[in-house]
Amino acid sequence: MPEIKIFPDNELFNQAVVDRFIEQAALCIQARNVFTVALSGGSTPAQIYAALAEEPNRDRITWEKVHLFWGDERHVPPEDADSNYRMVREVLLEKVAIPPENVHRVLAELDVHQAADFYEAELRGFFEGKQPRFDLALLGMGEDGHTASLFPHSTGLNEERRWFIANQIPESGVWRLTLTYPAINAARLILVLVKGVGKADRLKDVLTGAYDPVAQPIQAIEPKKGQIVWMLDQAAAEGLQPTFRP
Ligand code: 6PG
What we know:
This protein has about 250 residues and is α/β, with parallel strands linked by helices. It has helices at about 10-30, 45-50, 85-95, 110-125, 180-185, 200-210, 235; strands spanning about 5, 35-40, 65-70, 70-75, 135-140, 165-170, 175-180, 190-195, 225-235.
């Protein structure tokens, strides 16, 4: 059974995620002198990034040892309102002393396949050709069960070799850019952040229903040698049976 933590309110949820981020950063920097993070997009993590930029959280992190990557990105320029990079830049990057070379932006303004190839090369270069093992992967979950930009019935679900790809959302035809299952599942720690009553039914299906990762891609998120923790608020967790609650 995956590790599940349920928080009664937004403040406790956000601080718990921030504290786990800070703890993991300290452990990894002590062990390997670096902390690599794959950031999630969306609204849930934006509050986490903003909290990381505030005192006292900000000074509890050795930012020059932190390398930020994006778990997924929309196929838009960096100044676009939908850009996950822009969101992180506004709430975090402009407020902490992270060296610019430690911020590994997806060049999402390029042709989508070129952007994916460039980021694949960026990952292979940074991880020196070895399997990328992010020290922390932050993930969200959509109401359709997607995570990162691994959407239901999308071809990206079948990628077993590459770490980063262009992936088309079948319903809309919109192109996204995303880490693949091999890259995400190699992480040392995966935190899945799910909030809101709108996610409750899907979360119950994902955690207690039939295993169908083509329809519910987040079900195939399973760290090979790492740890996964589902960080939920009470609203999102309301569909979980008490026996399933920790
Ligand atoms: C993105 C995210 C996406 C997100 C989910 C949940 O680029 O939008 O990576 O996978 O995590 O859609 O988003 P919320 O946390 O905003 O509900």
